[in-house]
Each structure stands twice: as C-alpha cells, then as structure tokens.
C-alpha cells in the first residue's frame, strides 16, 4: 500500500468511527429510535445503520440496550467508601451489589476505594442503605452526599 492509499484508508476509518459515534450518541438519547430515523439523520441507508449497530454489538462497543426509569419521587446519593487495607475491595464491591438500593458500584482511585450510587424512595431509605453499607466487613469509612439535581449530556 502506498502512502496515498494508507492516508485514504486512515481517513475512511476515521469517517467510520465518527459515523459510529453519531449512531451511538443517537442511541444513547433514545435506544428505541428506529434505524430508519437514525439513517435519515446521519445520511446513511437503514441497512448500513443496522450493519454498523450489529458490528458495534459484536465487538462489545455497545454492551446492551437498557432503559432508564423515571426518577421522580426518588432520592439518590453517592456514597464514597474506604476499604480497610486487609480487606479485598472486589469482595466488598460484590457485597454492596447485594444491598437493596445500590444501583451502581465504581471501584475508584484516590482517598476512597469505592463509589456507590444509591437510589431509594426517601432519605430515610438512603440512610438505612448506608447503615447496611457500614455493616459490611472491610468497610472502614463512608462519606455520603445526597444528589440534588441530575443532568444528562446528550
């Protein structure tokens, strides 16, 4: 392959990536958006969009399609958790996932080892969940903040 062909190939692969990124952004906003509508928005055929989404699924760029429940009337909190130096962080994370109200776990770097996203119907329920977090073997400290407002980037 000569330098012109290589440069053209690189340009095409960048175009493919940018098109895939557009498809992903549209699906993040509405994962039920029909491929026909996506195709119209980005200037491709429906079959090309379908093929690209299939490839994105096969190569695990897209892991799954999911839904988001209406959070009206719910309270969320972010709990930062320190794990004792003698405990296994992944075991603590697994125990956290079994608690009612814990919706996401992140193992993180910095002063804390784990960030847990908690969602419940009230602050009282959030507090009960935090009490349960503190009872897990290996948890040495927690710091919790209540979420006041949630915004999404589209």
Fold blueprint:
Blueprint: H1 3-29, H2 35-42, H3 46-58, E1 75-83, H4 89-97, E2 102-107, E3 114-120, H5 123-134, E4 139-146
Helix pairs in contact: 2-3
Explain what this protein looks like in three dimensions.
With 154 residues, this protein is of the alpha+beta class. It folds into two domains: 3-58, Arc Repressor Mutant, subunit A (Orthogonal Bundle), CATH 1.10.10.10; 75-146, Lrp/AsnC effector binding domain/regulation of amino acid metabolism (RAM) domain (Alpha-Beta Plaits). It has five helices and four strands; from the N terminus they run H-H-H-E-H-E-E-H-E. Strands 2-3-1-4 form a four-stranded antiparallel sheet, covered by helices on one side. Helix 2 packs across helix 3 (46-58). The chain is elongated, with a radius of gyration of 22 Å. Mean pLDDT is 86; it is low at 4-15.
Structural class: alpha+beta
User: What is the CATH architecture assignment of the largest domain?
Assistant: 2-Layer Sandwich
CATH topology of the largest domain: Alpha-Beta Plaits
Count, helices: 5
Mean pLDDT: 86
User: In order across it, which strands form the biggest sheet?
Assistant: 2-3-1-4
At the first level of CATH, what is the class of the largest domain?
A: Alpha Beta
The CATH superfamily label of the largest domain reads Lrp/AsnC effector binding domain/regulation of amino acid metabolism (RAM) domain
Strand content: 15-25%
């Amino acid at each position: 392959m000569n330098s012109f062909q290589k440069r053209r190939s690189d340009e095409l692969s960048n175009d493919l990536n940018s098109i895939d990124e557009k498809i992903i952004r549209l699906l993040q906003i509405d994962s039920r958006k029909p491929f026909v509508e996506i195709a119209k928005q980005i200037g491709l055929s429906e079959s090309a969009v379908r093929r690209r989404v299939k490839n994105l699924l096969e190569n695990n760029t897209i892991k799954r399609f999911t839904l988001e429940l209406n959070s009206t009337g719910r309270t969320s909190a972010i709990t930062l958790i320190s794990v004792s130096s003698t405990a296994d962080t992944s075991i603590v994370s697994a125990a956290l996932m079994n608690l009612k109200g814990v919706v996401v776990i992140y193992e993180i770097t910095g002063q804390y080892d784990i960030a847990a996203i908690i969602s419940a119907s009230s602050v009282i329920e959030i507090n009960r969940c935090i009490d349960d977090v503190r009872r897990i073997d290996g948890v040495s400290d927690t710091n919790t903040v209540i979420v006041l407002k949630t915004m999404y980037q589209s």
